[in-house]
Specification:
D-amino Acid Aminotransferase, Chain A, domain 1; 7-stranded antiparallel beta sheet; 6-stranded antiparallel beta sheet; 13 strands; 320 residues; alpha+beta; 32% helix
Length: 320
Amino acid sequence: MLNPFRIAKRLRAIGLTGIGQRNAEFVLMYNQRRNYPRVDDKLITKKLALAAGLPVPQLYAVVREEHEIEELHEKLRGRESFVVKPAHGSGGDGILVITGRRGDRYRRSNGALLAREEFDHHISNMLSGLFSLGGQPDHALVEYCVQFDPIFDNVSYKGVPDIRIISFLGYPVMSMIRLPTRMSDGKANLHQGAIGVGIDIPTGITRRGVWGREIIREHPDTESTIVGLEIPHWDELLMIAARCYELVELGYVGVDIVLDKDLGPLILELNARPGLAIQMANGNGLLHRLRRVQELEQQGTLSRDPAERVAFSKANFPTL
């Protein structure tokens, strides 16, 4: 029988952080409520990133009113692929990925065809707030559909992998890549069945993966290894995450980035309350890393230079 005291001691030793501690000591302490709209509204995030010269997927249209849904079809004429998402959505809910057309129907990423009436109904649900935080009325963003980097061809199932980096006071402290599976229906969402794979901060190389509660080394659908992948543009990804501190002025934030085969890194979204499954993916806790950055704060030695912050993280936060 497992000894609960021994387990608790082991979890403390690796610095595992729970939701209560994360919220009390980091989210509430370092994220001012007035700045939440900068990450909770994807349109605001996109505008801030563009103003700062940070890369984001191209915006094709914004739908705010029901009557604009009909006009959207004309705006999208000639575009074979695009993504529709709620501006205030969370957890990937409501996102519609279109990869082609057949007549007046739209082909989804899973291969299913969507009639024009079904497409309109889905966007109408977005505007009503069905997929938004708190169920409040929302608007829909239509943007470029990322064509993922070929390094992920054998470790992703019908979807675009994304890379999450936790940034604390501008220091990248932990990262993982989320790989879509058949179970997740091609979505990079861990709660829906995607794989979380820890990434070593100094090298950008994947170390281990988790699928639900199972530690894995191969993708369950492709049977290709998910360990030892070298993430392209790694230093650039870390710089983007570091710069997001100044971008949204939130101390504790999750930065979600995708890698396009032609455009390179693109910011997908930011999250003021990033989940803690990233610890399981890395086999390591966040707390020791967060405390190390807090030491710099207490010493008055926090850097204002994103490049210096990245260099510190690469030197101090290896995935063992």
